[in-house]
Design brief:
By secondary structure, the chain is α+β, with helices and mostly antiparallel strands. It has helices spanning about 15-25, 40-55, 70-75, 90-100, 115-125, 135-145, 160-165, 175-180; strands at about 170-175, 190-195, 200-210, 210-220, 230-235, 245. The longest helix has 15 residues, at about 135-145. The chain is elongated and about 60 Å long. The two termini are about 35 Å apart. The relative contact order is 0.14.
Length: about 250
Amino acid sequence: MKYPNKPICLGDDHPDIVIQIQKRLNQKNFEAVEEDGVFGNLTEHAVIAFQNSYCDLNGLPLRIDGKVGPLTCGALFGRTLQQSYNDSPLAREAIKIAHDEIGIKEDPPRSNRGPRIKEYLRCVGLPEPNSWCAAFVYWGFEQAASKQNRVNPLVKTGGCMEHWNKNRIGEKLDAAHAIANPLLVKPGSIFIISRGAGKGHTGIVTGIFDDYLHTIEGNTNNEHSAEGEGVFQLQRRISTVNLGYLFYN
């Protein structure tokens, strides 16, 4: 499908494009709509439901506005996520918050210090300098939980392995099952990598394309270091996650 020059939305008069949108929404089982070429309230509600559950082709949350612009169009008709359904409002909000942090850097570089780094660490009761990838994840979910007036269900820790070992609430998916069936990994999942000697690395999964995870990670860099200098949006092969995933509703 060719992307429209402007978003297709409520009351739009392009019936040929609207019918294609309606057919695709029905194929994906989003609030079945009549395939009549009329972008009415039911079609708008179905688009909103789709945007709530799918990411764009970069693995980022779609804008939930009921309009079919290039990003929503790409998610509907382009290269689709293998698994893009996310039934956790908490996880969806945490992804949005983490995305807003992309570009935060240590000051000075490679110091595990900086105004924002200090805030992440303080959230789990740690001082500077300390490795902060797990603190970043906890901080993101803490902000999301606060917005939703609920208790953060994550283990309050700056340790990746401690998070994995002490988790009692979140769904746990081991790496072997995830590699065998990537469909099991949900956006909003927290991946845990074991680096040995009690050390690890962690981040938030924002989407899955083929056997690649799209992630937002703290204390990393473009080379996927576990001791980097900032918050980065990355892609990594699912096989690089050797421990597993935690998912919180």
